[in-house]
Every structure is written in structure tokens, then in C-alpha cells.
Amino acid sequence: MSYELVVNGRAHQIEEDGQTPLLWVLRDTLHLTGTKYGCGIAQCGACTVHVDGQPIRSCSLPLDAAAGSQIVTIEAVAGAEADALRAAWVKRDVPQCGFCQSGQIMSAVALLRVKSIPTDDDIDQAMSGNICRCATYNRIRAAIHDAAGSSFSPANPA
Amino acid sequence: MSWRHGFRSATPTRRRRRIGCLPLLAIIVAAIVLIAAIALRPRTLPQPGSITAASLKREVTHLRPVAAFASIGDPAARSLALFAEAGRVIQHPRCMNCHPRNDRPTQTDAMRPHVPWVSRGPDDAGEPTSRCSTCHHPANFEPSGVPGNPKWKLAPIEMAWQGKSLGDICRQMLDPARSHMDRAALLHHMAEDELVGWAWHPGGKRSPAPGAQAEFGALIKAWLESGARCPS
Q1: For A80-149, CATH number?
Q2: Do B141 and A57 touch (CB under 8 A)?
Q3: Of A108, A132, B28, B207, which is most buried by a Cβ count within 10 Å?
Q4: What DSSP character marks residue A62?
């Protein structure tokens, strides 16, 4: 069956089974390999993308449920929050092996869009579903604080 | 020449036995062949056996039908017996996992804390930054094993069941201040609510609640009609 999938602002006709995980479509059909396969059971967060603005584990979302939504992947996530996080990620040299980092960034962007100045508890809550085998959690938390304190915040708009 | 000869005769040297390389190699090869022969000797192969039925087929549990309680003459005793049978569903992990005692759901038949760490949030469907719908969608998704339902959320904290006796759960259900339901709404919730109905179709390796939702609803209806008595 054919499904129309809007990814990063572009519409694609996808000829796949409706129960194909969105992650498979992104990586194997659209070749957007920035979104990673980690566990395949929605336990690690490496496959996080935004679906209609919400962070979603793409390994656990069937194609037929994703069709008709606006999907944004790490390749195109944009805006003040994303820019601030990228800068903070580089400044803090956050990644170690880097495999989980696209999912971490996608969850962090979604967090800052909801809470522009998150507390440690807010960060722990929002990022708890993103696992990092290199245990870069302290740097991730520090970078999110850095990004929140940078010029993008509503209190100090860019 | 003769001197040399005489010297040799007078003090004969002890001749050392030497084992050549070839015999040593032959001994090693023979040892390897012997070990291999012992290790690879013909033996009876393990006989194929069937996997135990328990691991292949999920244990099916039934609910006793309402008619099975008709022989109990005392209405109060019949009401209690009906609720005890319904309690096998109410206290099943498929139901209890979403009626936690605090803000954290549990999961699996072992009712362990939910992984990842999540909280009920303001609408019982997750915090704004970590919604249930991050992972749970309108239907069970077999490729990832993640369960789903359109109404996926926790029961309100006023309807916490974990850690409570069946009698306490019963009294809580009948208290509209805590259950937010009158008896008609309670019956509808038990007999027809689709999220409750998920408990009989949980997907994956999850054990379903006993019986069927219609049987469970019939038990609740009969319990309500027989006086809705609660265990002590």
C-alpha cells in the first residue's frame, strides 16, 4: 500500500507495509540515517524523531500511524532551541561514541520548547527515555542548561 | 693413531641415547589421534524432545460464569462470591499496572517499575515532556512489542489499587468521590471501556486477564444487582 509521509517538509510516497516501523522507512527508504536504531523496542530513545512536534520513538510507530503527520528528523530540526543546543553540545564536547546523540538532541529540543528554563528534575524527566551507553549524562544535562541560559530563551530572545 | 685408540679403550665414554625428531613427532601425532578418537567416538545423539507445552501455549484461565453462583441462596454471600471472582481480573497485573499506588506505572506480569522512568503528569497520560504517546500508540505494535490503545493512560490517583486489599478496592470503586463514577458508569467502565478491554488482548507475551471482558462485565453487573457487597 502507498502512504504519503511528510518528512522534513517534503512529501514522499512510501510503498511499504503499513506496519513497517517509521524508523525503517526513514533509514532504509528515505536514507535519513541520522536517526539511529538502538534497541528496536522503545527502550533507548536513539530513534527519537518529532511527530507533529512531539518526541516519538520511531521504532515503535507504524507507518500507517505516521502518515499524515509532520515528521522532523535530526537532519532538519531547526529553530532557536536546536541552534542553542548544537552550540552547547559542541562547547561541552558532549558526545563520546555519539550513537545516541541524535535522539538526545531531539528529546532536548522538545524539552526546551515546553520548558525554556528546565530544572535538573525537568531534564531528568524529559531525558529519562534516552539511554547513553557512554554515560555522558552529566555533560548532556550541563549542555541543556547552557542552551537554556543562552540567548534563545523567551526571557532573552535572540 | 694407536695412542688415540688406547685412550678410547681405557676410558669408554657413556653413550647417551638420543631420540630423533621423527619418532618424537610420531608420538605427538599418535597422541593427537588418540585424543581425537576418544573425543569423536560414535555416541548416541540426544533424542529430539518436544518443548514443554507451558512455554508454547499461554495458560488459559477462565472466569466462572454468573450462573455458577446461582446456587448460593444468601444474596450477600452470592454478592461477595461474585466480587471475589471479578477480583481475579481486578487484581490481575494487566489491570493493576495502570492503577499504581503513586505516580509511576508498573509493567510486566512481575509488576516491576516502568522502564523508562515516567510519571503520570497532569492528565494521567504523562508529563508534557514525556507523554505516554512517546512510545504507546493506538494499537499494540508487534514489531517493537510496545502495547497500545487509543486511551492509554493511568487510572486517577484516587483509584490507586496497588497495595490495597480487594475489600478496600471494592469500597473505593463504590465511592463516587474517589472513583468519579456512579454505578452505571462503573459497570460501563468494567464491561465496555476499550482500555479496560485491552487487558484481554494485551499482545506480545503478556498474559491476558482471566476470561473475557463480557464475562467480567456480567460478573460486575450481577454483583451490583445482588447488593454490591464488599469483602471485609
Answers
A1: 1.10.150.120
A2: no
A3: A108
A4: B
pTM of the predicted model as reported, rounded to 2 decimal places? 0.81
Q: What is the grid cell recorded at B70? A: 446461582
Q: How far is B209 from chain A (nearest CA, A)?
A: 23
Is B141 within 8 Å of A114 when comparing Cβ atoms?
no
- Chain B residues whose C-beta is within 8 A of a chain A C-beta are 115-119, 127-131, 133-135, 137-138, 141-146
Domain definitions of chain B by residue range: 67-225
Which among B118, B133, B142 has CB closest to A54?
B133
> Which ranges constitute the DSSP H helices of chain B?
2-10, 21-39, 53-56, 75-90, 93-96, 166-173, 176-179, 183-192, 194-197, 213-225
In CATH terms, the fold of domain A2-72 is Ubiquitin-like (UB roll) (3.10.20)
List per-block mean pLDDT (blocks of 10 residues) for chain A, which spans 158 residues. Answer: 96 97 98 98 97 97 97 98 97 97 98 96 96 97 95 50
How far is C-alpha A148 from the geometric centre of its chain's CA atoms? 17
